[in-house]
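dumping this here so i dont lose it
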């Protein structure tokens, strides 16, 4: 037993050492090169395991869409798996699978990203595939019609038939009025139904080009060799023009906004959202600490108050949008145990916010929150994939080098900073509140439709 415990402790120590080493002076470990066509390549060489994550990020998400054309970014992500001039959809999947890799993609408000994870000796097979679909995507009407059905069904499952998802969508539309964060990443149902293949082709031509993209590779490779391979495949692609990334942002909110959603559900749900800055402001890191104080672990303030002591809620959370491209929202969410508890849950959340405004956080509690954030940040880098994702998200929000600012910025936060920031942003006039009012199930309601056949995995 003692020997086993020693072995476990050794593994923990080694894990900590590996993770810490991977983050020490990250900016000094990364190599960046920008080709003449504008494509940036970010390489982080790490030989701790014989694998590589290869990621292509496009600076386009739902924030780049327009009224009446929402959902194009996500729809185009689906179509990117339908084949290019050199590789059919079946060949794309087959080549990666036969070489022991896996692939996927995801779309957000700020970006669309495609990735493959594969053995380091097979990384070359990915380069030509990604280069070809960056420039030579084949968009067919039959694929478009099928994938549009898939996207509509995905929206139904994730939003229209998900009471909490529907509430969050409605709350975001209330919180943002002029910013493109107003609409959901998947798009409004009516927009999805009416946009055309021509809309997708235009969108692809504008946003899918080297000057609006960058590549992140992390893992077991020799940077000179890999960079040469990437340059050979991508540097000849025409650069195009950089799209305008400046978008409207909302003016300061002048009063609380509320939205009530009545849907069939077993339990109520409550969300409070405050407009806050991102990592471009030092206050963004203070908000990270506040989120940890409120909801990180079972000793956090909200967990103790709402779940352990008052026993009013099934779950509770606080989330800060540090890595968004534009200023976003700090949210508090809770699932009351019953509709009768909803008002008391909201009152308790208000009391915890009020406490932040008035009472300095104790040194021990503050240190614990900082330790939790640092540990999560460090251990999250045990995976090459998440290391690459973190670099890319900072690149989208500001610059990949800002990743080295996270821990120092967290460590600088003082009790006075927390009071100042809480008083600045956590005001009633600056928040939107959403509440799900559960309704009983309807008798005779038709069963959900089956998903249309598609080779596309819902992401």
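and the seq i came up w/
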């Amino acid at each position: 037993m003692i020997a086993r415990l020693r072995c476990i402790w050794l593994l923990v120590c080694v894990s900590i050492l590996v993770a810490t080493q991977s983050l020490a002076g990250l900016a000094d470990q990364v190599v960046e090169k920008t080709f003449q066509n504008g494509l940036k390549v970010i390489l982080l060489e790490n030989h701790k395991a014989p694998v590589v994550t290869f990621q292509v990020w496009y600076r386009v998400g739902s924030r780049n869409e327009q009224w009446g054309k929402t959902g194009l970014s996500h729809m185009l992500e689906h179509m990117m798996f339908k084949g290019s001039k050199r590789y059919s959809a079946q060949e794309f999947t087959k080549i990666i699978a036969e070489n022991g890799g896996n692939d996927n993609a995801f779309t957000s408000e700020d970006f669309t990203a495609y990735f493959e994870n594969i053995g380091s000796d097979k990384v070359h097979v990915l380069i030509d595939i990604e280069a070809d679909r960056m420039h030579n995507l084949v968009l067919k009407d039959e694929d478009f019609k099928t994938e549009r059905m898939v996207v509509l069904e995905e929206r139904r499952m994730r939003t229209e038939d998900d009471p909490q998802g529907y509430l969050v969508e409605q709350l975001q539309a209330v919180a943002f009025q002029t910013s493109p964060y107003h609409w959901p990443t998947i798009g409004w149902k009516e927009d999805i139904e009416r946009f055309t293949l021509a809309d997708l082709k235009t969108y692809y031509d504008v946003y899918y080009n080297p000057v609006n993209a960058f590549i992140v590779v992390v893992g077991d490779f020799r940077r000179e060799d890999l960079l040469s391979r990437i340059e050979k495949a991508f540097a000849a692609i025409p650069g195009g023009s950089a799209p305008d990334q400046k978008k409207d942002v909302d003016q300061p909110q002048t009063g609380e906004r509320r939205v009530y959603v009545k849907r069939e559900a077993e339990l109520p749900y409550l969300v409070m959202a405050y407009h806050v800055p991102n990592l471009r402001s030092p206050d963004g890191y203070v908000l990270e600490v506040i989120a940890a104080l409120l909801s990180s672990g079972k000793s956090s303030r909200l967990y103790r108050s709402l779940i352990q002591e008052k026993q009013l809620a099934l779950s509770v959370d606080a989330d800060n949008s540090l890595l968004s491209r534009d200023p976003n929202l700090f949210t508090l969410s809770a699932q009351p145990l019953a509709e009768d508890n909803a008002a008391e849950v909201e009152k308790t959340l208000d009391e915890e916010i009020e406490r932040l405004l008035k009472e300095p956080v104790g040194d021990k509690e503050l240190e614990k929150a900082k330790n939790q954030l640092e540990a999560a940040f460090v251990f999250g880098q045990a995976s090459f994939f998440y290391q690459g994702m973190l670099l890319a998200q900072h690149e989208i929000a500001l610059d990949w080098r800002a990743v080295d600012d996270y821990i120092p910025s967290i460590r600088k936060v003082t009790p006075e900073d927390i009071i100042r920031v809480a008083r600045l942003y956590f005001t009633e006039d600056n928040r939107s509140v959403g509440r799900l009012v559960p309704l009983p199930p309807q008798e005779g309601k038709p069963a959900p439709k089956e998903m249309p056949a598609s080779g596309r995995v819902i992401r």
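Residues 310 and 425 are 27 Å apart (CA to CA).
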